[in-house]
């Protein structure tokens, strides 16, 4: 009993694993879809956390370069699994909304919470202005790449179903983005302060140094668990949308990104509370870049193999939210300083965007 208490004290998020048997019970007893959706979402949170912890542990045995590659590619594994399941079910709008929501969540919610809590504890915080400026430029360029298929596809051909030329444009852009991601990883490995694979703090790495076999087993079981819970979650989405009268955009923009990235978000906020604002900003930016340059293009190719082609054509609401989020985050970080008021402003914009998507008709 004392061993279990020590484990829960070290990993308080683990108590959410109790949601897994609750999901099984809910399905056996045919509970309402809203309960199944909520319980499966809660169950994914600790499983996603364990994927991250096991990946960090493996980094100790693979060395810094290969460890950085593992962190960069598996950092958004939970969300990638959820979106793959959604693609198989034909929920392509949900997938694109999830991509939008992940970028906005990191730039507005995570940065906002980090600046708010860090500012309340340490007043004005400073971070590497030059690195923040470089990251902001890279973010703007990345979002511009995502905008090009959306703007040009309307003049190239019909979108529903997608014209072969529209698909070709998305595939071409996705291929270029993956190449850029690979080059970005190469740059991160060869220079200090690379944006795609931020260095993890020593105290986090020490805590996550599991034995190699344990790390591999946890990674395998957590991945299987996330895949299983994702099946349940996605299966309950359409009944939940009908029951609550909310839009698919709202679930994709708000819920899916938060569910898959809670652990990573908490690390960024913790670093800000410890006055390590440079690292906090890099974690948020790196996750946004990974979603845009790796997860989104990979999903395009996976969707093609699954017979439900996903294009990088976002609607006007998603484009507006992306442009606003990236520009505001770039402006806030331009001076290399942050305070609690700037954090509140970022959170306010996130809440307003969430409200707009909540009220958007399905």
Nutshell version of this structure?
With 362 residues, the protein is an all-alpha fold.
Going by CATH, the architecture would be Up-down Bundle
CATH homologous superfamily placement:
NCX, central ion-binding region
Radius of gyration: 20 Å
Oligomeric organization of the protein chains: single chain
Alpha plus pi helix count: 14
Shape: globular
Low-confidence stretches: none
Q: Give the helix/strand class.
A: mainly alpha
Q: How would you sum up the major sheet?
A: 2 strands, antiparallel
H/E series, N to C?
Answer: HHHHHHEHHHHHHHEH
Question: How many structural domains?
Answer: 1
Descriptors:
single chain; 362 residues; mainly alpha; A middle domain of Talin 1; two-stranded antiparallel ribbon
Blueprint (SSEs and pairs):
Elements: H1 2-10, H2 19-28, H3 33-62, H4 64-74, H5 77-88, H6 92-122, E1 125-126, H7 129-156, H8 164-190, H9 202-207, H10 212-244, H11 248-273, H12 277-306, H13 316-332, E2 337-338, H14 340-359
Helix pairs in contact: 2-3, 3-4, 3-10, 3-11, 5-6, 5-10, 5-11, 5-12, 6-11, 6-12, 6-13, 6-14, 7-8, 7-12, 7-13, 8-12, 11-12, 11-14, 13-14
């Amino acid at each position: 009993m004392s061993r279990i208490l020590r484990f829960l004290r070290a990993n308080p998020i683990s108590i959410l694993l109790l949601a897994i048997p609750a999901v099984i019970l809910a399905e056996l007893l045919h509970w309402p879809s809203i309960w199944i959706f909520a319980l499966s979402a809660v169950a994914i949170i600790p499983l996603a956390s364990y994927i991250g912890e096991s990946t960090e542990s493996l980094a100790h045995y693979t060395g810094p370069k290969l460890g950085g590659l593992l962190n960069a590619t598996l950092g958004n594994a939970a969300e990638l699994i959820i979106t793959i399941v959604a693609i198989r079910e034909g929920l392509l709008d949900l997938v694109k909304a999830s991509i939008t929501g992940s970028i906005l969540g990191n730039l507005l919610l995570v940065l906002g919470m980090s600046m708010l809590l860090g500012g309340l504890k340490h007043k004005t915080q400073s971070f590497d202005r030059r690195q923040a400026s470089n990251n902001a430029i890279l973010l703007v360029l990345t979002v511009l790449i995502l905008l090009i298929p959306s703007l040009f596809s309307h003049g190239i051909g019909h979108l529903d179903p997608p014209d072969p030329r529209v698909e070709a444009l998305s595939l071409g852009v996705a291929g270029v983005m993956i190449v850029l991601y690979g080059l970005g990883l190469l740059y991160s490995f060869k220079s200090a302060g690379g944006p795609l694979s931020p260095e993890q703090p020593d105290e986090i790495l020490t805590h996550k140094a599991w034995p190699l076999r344990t790390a591999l087993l946890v990674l395998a079981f957590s991945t299987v668990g996330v895949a299983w819970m994702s099946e349940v979650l996605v299966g309950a989405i359409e009944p939940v949308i009908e029951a609550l009268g909310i839009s698919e955009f709202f679930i994709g923009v708000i819920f899916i990104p938060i569910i898959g990235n809670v652990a990573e978000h908490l690390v960024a906020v913790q670093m800000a509370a410890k006055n390590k604002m440079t690292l906090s900003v890099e974690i948020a930016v790196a996750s946004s870049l990974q979603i845009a340059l790796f997860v989104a293009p990979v999903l395009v190719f996976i969707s093609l193999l699954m017979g439900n082609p996903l294009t990088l054509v976002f609607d006007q609401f998603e484009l507006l939210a992306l442009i606003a989020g990236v520009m505001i985050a770039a402006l806030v970080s331009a001076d290399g300083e942050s305070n609690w008021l700037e954090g509140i402003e970022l959170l306010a914009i996130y809440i307003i965007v969430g409200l707009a998507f909540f009220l958007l008709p399905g």
